[in-house]
Design goal:
Helix content is 29%, strand content 28%. By secondary structure, it is of the alpha/beta class. The protein has 2 domains: 2-113 and 293-324, Quinone Oxidoreductase, Chain A, domain 1 (Alpha-Beta Complex); 126-266, 3-Layer(aba) Sandwich (Rossmann fold), CATH 3.40.50. Helix 5 links the parallel strand 11 (214-219) and strand 12. The model has no long low-confidence stretch (mean pLDDT 95).
Length: 327
């Protein structure tokens, strides 16, 4: 038997609880993992609160991330005792996920736990931090360099934004953080933000083309914020878009793209191939120090996850939430 967060649904609606499950109930997979830590991402918050139809079948154990140790393996890639990390692949949506003490997964979904990180640190990074690394890689690969000017990070106190600020600063960029939380200026400065702006300057409808400012953008917000960020991006700049905290709409025109050559780079973390995942973790291991992780992360117990998920969706969470599934 093992403890897990379970989401279920019937005619009366959705329910969330901590349950004791038998390992025989685990879904199919070729690797059995003893989970050490999981985490809460925005998608987990949507799933647990029922704010969006993220879960595709019930009952479901949420948690799109986990870090742990292989107990049993029928995969040629993994053996008992290997330390592994999972991010995405539809886990926590269509396949039982990481908010449990045990998980059974497909070996092809896993990557080795980088030697630079403990399991707890890997979950302080989680999909949010790994996505931030993918975004920074996307900007760098698009030719954005520190000498070209400022880089904007929207949703900067969130999980993606917090790690993006730290990674961009480590890569030599001048980082401007956008947040609606004026009290978090010191937190963002410690991560590496050179300046902070009010998210309200980006969150309402703006002109199709605006004063050029950003060499690059990491956007986890979407909607008007993404549209305005594109409208303010300098000639030949790039915008890495990975989230929809404000909305999934994109109320923009083609003007920044056809008159300034701005590139909008879609960043997907769920189905990204292992080659991109490996490069992202190489950047994280190289550029994200332990002090930044401690500043970003708050640890909770498994039973605290449902309440924390509600706070996450309500915008009350700063940085990353690490879940110790064994307490």
């Amino acid at each position: 038997m093992f403890s897990a967060i379970v989401i279920d649904k019937n005619d009366a609606g959705q329910s969330v609880s901590v349950q004791q499950l038998d390992e025989s109930a685990l879904p199919e997979g070729d690797v059995l993992i003893d989970v050490a830590y999981s985490t809460l991402n925005y998608k987990d918050g949507l799933a647990i609160t029922g704010s969006s139809p993220v879960v595709r079948k019930f009952p479901m154990v949420p948690g799109i991330d986990l870090a742990g140790t292989v107990r049993e393996s029928n995969s040629a890639e993994w053996k008992a005792g290997d330390k592994v990390v999972l991010n995405g692949w539809g886990v926590g949506e269509g396949h039982w996920g990481g908010l449990a003490r045990v998980a059974r997964l497909k070996g092809e979904w896993l990557v080795p736990l980088p030697s630079a990180f403990t399991a707890r640190q890997a979950m302080a990074i989680g999909t949010a931090g790994y996505t931030a690394a993918l975004c920074v890689d996307a900007l760098v690969n698009a030719g954005v360099t520190p000498d070209q000017g400022e880089v904007l990070v929207t949703g900067a106190t969130g999980g993606v934004g917090s790690v993006a600020v730290a990674l961009l600063k480590a890569a030599g960029f001048t980082v401007v953080a956008a947040t609606g939380k004026a009290s978090e200026g010191d937190y963002l400065a410690k991560l590496g933000a050179d300046s902070v702006i009010d998210r309200a300057t980006l969150s309402e409808k703006g002109k199709a083309l605006q004063k050029e400012r950003w060499a690059g953008v990491v956007d986890a917000v979407g909607s008007f914020t993404l549209a305005n960020a594109c409208a303010q991006t300098r000639y030949g700049g790039a915008v890495a878009a990975c989230g929809l905290a404000q909305g999934a709409d994109f109320p923009a025109t083609v003007m920044p793209f056809i008159l300034r050559g701005v590139r909008l780079l879609g960043v997907d973390s769920v189905m990204a191939p292992r080659s991109l995942r490996t490069k992202a973790y190489e950047r994280l291991a190289r550029d994200l120090d332990a002090a930044s992780l401690e500043a970003i992360a708050t640890e909770i117990a498994l039973a605290d996850a449902p309440a924390a998920a509600a706070d996450l969706i309500a915008g009350k969470i700063r940085g990353r939430v690490v879940v110790d599934v064994n307490r």
